[in-house]
Amino acid sequence: MGRRNKQSWESLIARLQTGWSGRQLSEHFLWKEGLSSTPDETWAHIQGVRGLWAMHKNAGVLLQMADFAARHADSVDPELLQALRSDAMQIRLCTLMTIAQCTFSQASDSVRYNAFRAASMYTGMTARMTQLLEGSANSALPAFVAAM
Predict the structure, then answer these.
(1) Structural domain range at position 108
(2) Where are the alpha helices (DSSP H) in 19-48?
(3) 67, 95 in Cβ contact below 8 A?
(4) Residue in 6, 4, 26, 30 with CA at minimum distance from that of residue 142
(5) What is the pLDDT of residues 4-54, one digit of tens each?
(6) In whole angstroms, how far apart are CA 18 and each of 15, 78, 123, 148?
């Protein structure tokens, strides 16, 4: 708890996975939910397990960012905060299951579909995080957009 309370916005942004971005997945990444790619295209864009692992890690960081915003902003929509928490847990579970599945079936159709599903949830979560920051921590939005 003490370590969590000492985190800064900058330290959270710095923990986002670099060298990978979901921008290729959606025309409106960070602003609207949904993908602009097929499961096969998504698998190629996320670079397979590499992208799944980045989504897994980033979902945890995004959850911490939502909690940070809730602690430091005057008002945060509780339903939006709950949706972000739910998103993070679903993404983390889906990515881990897909990574495990990939070790057994090397990018089968079901692996690519599950990766597509995880990526779809991820774009939704990033759009909700943008919405949260626009409403309660507007000064943090440019750093978030740049990092994503």
Answers:
(1) 30-147
(2) 39-46
(3) no
(4) 30
(5) 667 888 889 889 887 677 787 887 888 888 888 899 999 999 999 999 999
(6) 8, 29, 16, 8
**How many domains is the chain built from?**
1
49-85 in b/e burial notation, b at 16+ Cβ within 10 A?
bebbbbbbbbbebbbebbbbbbeeeeebeeebbebbb
Tally: H helices and E strands in the chain: 7, 0
d(C-alpha 13, C-alpha 50), whole Å: 19
Could you give phi then psi for residue 64, rounded to 5 degrees? Answer: -65, -35
Q: What is the pLDDT of residues 56-109, one digit of tens each?
A: 999 999 999 888 888 877 778 889 889 999 999 999 999 999 999 988 877 788
The dihedral region occupied by 48, where left means phi > 0, alpha psi between -120 and 50, and beta the remainder, is left
**Cα separation, 125 vs 86, whole angstroms:** 9
Distances 6 to 11, 23, 27, 65, 94 between C-alpha atoms, Å: 10, 30, 36, 13, 30
25 C-beta neighbours (distance < 10 Å), count: 22
